[in-house]
Every structure is written in C-alpha cells, then in structure tokens.
Design goal:
Radius of gyration: 20 Å
Strand order of the largest sheet: 2-3-1-4-5-6
Structural class: alpha/beta
Order of helices and strands: EHEEHEHEHEHHEEHHEH
Number of domains: 2
CATH class of the largest domain: Alpha Beta
Largest sheet: 6 strands, mixed
Number of strands: 9
Oligomer: single chain
Helix content: 25-40%
Distance between the termini: 40 Å
Strand content: 15-25%
Length: 293
C-alpha cells in the first residue's frame, strides 16, 4: 500500500467541538476544551501516525467577525489553515444552524480540496431536527458529504477517519513518526493554565488574560515551571489574585493537577501576575506573544 500524508484543517464556529474532535482523532489531549467561546486562540497541529499514513490535523480558532487585532490574528490562522488543507472538515452544531463569517464561507467555496461537513453533538438532537440540519448544510455545501457525528461520544469518528484517509494524497511524512504535535512543551503549559482561568473566572478576566511560560526545568522526577499571567488593566489583578491570594492559589492547584496528568510527573508551579496594557489591541505586543509574524 502506498503511503498517504496530508493536512486536514478543522474549522467551525465557537463551541462546536473542534478541539474535542482533534483530541479524539489523535488520541491525545492536545487542544484545550472549555464551554467558553474563544478558548482556542492559536492554530494547533495534532499528528496521527500509522505505517501507511500521517495525518496532520489543524485545530483553529472558532469563526467570528473580528472586532480587534487579536481576533483578526485568530482569523488569519483560520485563513492559513484553509490554504494548507488537503482535506477540510467544516464542523457545525446540530442545534445551531448559522454562519458567523461570510468571508470564510466565500474562501471555502473557492477551494478545490475535498470538504466533509460534520454535524456535531447529534446525541443532543432529535431525528427531525437532524434531518433539517443536514438539509441546510447540503444547500450551503452542495458538493460536500455531510456526516453526523458526536466527537465527545466518538460516534462515527472511526467512519470519519476512514473517509479522511481515503481522501489524502500520496506522499512522504512531513514530521518524524514519533511526533504528535508541532508545538513545544511550554505552549501546552500556557494553554493548560489559560484553560483553568477560563473555567475558574467570569466576565472579562479570561479574555483579557495571556499566559507565558518563563522557565521550564525538566528534572528526572520533577518539573519546575514559572509562568507570567498578563492582564490588560491594573484593576484585573485583584480579581485574578483574589482575597489573600485565594483565587490564584486555587488556579495553581487546578493547573498543577492537569500539568501533572499531561507530563506524567510531579510539577512545581509558580505564577507572576503582570499588567500588559491593551495587549489584545497592540500589534507589536501581539507579535511578541506569537500571534503575528
């Protein structure tokens, strides 16, 4: 059998389950998952290897109409994923029939690569509504195959993987066969800490926060990690830290537990909280944080 390889881009609106799907297909928890919109800010590769194929899945930020520079940078990641795709997975929610970005839709309709339209969370919808969703997406993407799935319950994910493999071009592997992602370890520290902030804090705090790992010392049995948590305004520091540091302590406990599960060893974790004013709207600051090139 000839070796197949290619980039499979996963796009869709916020909270549609893109990260859950990539994690399920790759078999590793690479992308952060929370109930809040804009959890995924970067483009993340998850690499699935076999003797006969290598699939580079690309998880992307949820589609939105960009209102400020950070969101524009996030949508640029989506546009890049469209350009690279050998196969495109467009994910929609079974309960929500809508399109958030007309520009992205127009870019998709120009593509010549195979497109699979995935209706996710079908375990949360009845047959009549599912049929309505299938009919709607067939009208939007008439040349594409529509496949109902549940990424969380892994319903039809094996069927989906088989279809992806059949659509991949032949070629040599892009990455070493032992790789499961293109991202360094520090990136996953940042994402895990930010995931816990999204879970533990309300209102504007999660969206005003950026996490940067300043030091990562990997010992035989212990990881020593120091992170900076950036906020946009001085008034947000008190909320993040909490009364007598209780909120920050709870964040540290939750993040350390997930980091130990991810890295399979004990973790010593230390935070510094700093203000980086208006970082989401400052292009130079966004460049330093890896959102712009």
């Amino acid at each position: 059998m000839n070796h197949k390889t290619g980039f499979v881009s996963i796009i869709g609106e916020a909270n549609v389950g893109k990260s859950t799907l990539m994690n399920a297909l790759v078999g590793e928890r690479l992308s952060t998952i929370t109930p809040k919109a804009q959890t995924t800010r970067h483009r993340i590769f998850g690499i699935l290897n076999s003797i006969d194929y290598q699939i580079i899945f690309s998880d992307t930020p949820g589609l939105l109409e960009a209102a400020y520079p950070l969101q524009k940078a996030m949508m640029k990641f989506v546009e890049d994923a469209l350009k690279d795709a050998d196969v495109l997975l467009y994910m929609a929610q079974a309960k929500e029939i809508s399109l958030k970005s007309q520009k992205i839709l127009e870019n998709i309709q120009k593509l010549s690569v195979p497109i699979l339209l995935l209706i996710n969370k079908i375990d949360c919808i009845d047959q009549k509504n599912l049929e309505g969703a299938v009919e709607y997406w067939h009208r939007i993407f008439p040349e594409s195959e529509v496949l109902p799935i549940s990424a969380l319950k892994k319903f039809n994910t094996d069927l989906l993987l088989g279809k992806i493999i059949s659509l991949l071009p032949e070629g040599h592997a892009y990455y070493p066969k032992e790789d499961i992602t293109d991202r360094p370890e520090r990136f996953f520290v940042n994402e895990i800490v930010r995931e816990k902030i999204l879970f533990l804090y309300k209102k504007e705090i999660p969206y005003s926060t950026e996490v940067v790992t300043e030091s990562f010392e990997d010992g035989q049995t212990l990881l020593k990690i120091q992170c900076v948590i950036y906020l946009e305004r001085d008034s947000q520091k008190g909320i993040l830290i909490g009364h007598q540091g209780k909120a920050l302590k709870n964040l540290g406990i939750a993040a350390r537990k997930s980091l130990e599960e991810f890295f399979k060893k004990k973790v010593f974790l230390k935070f510094h909280v700093k203000v980086n004013k208006n970082w989401r709207s400052d292009k130079e600051k966004l460049k330093k944080l890896g959102y712009l090139h």
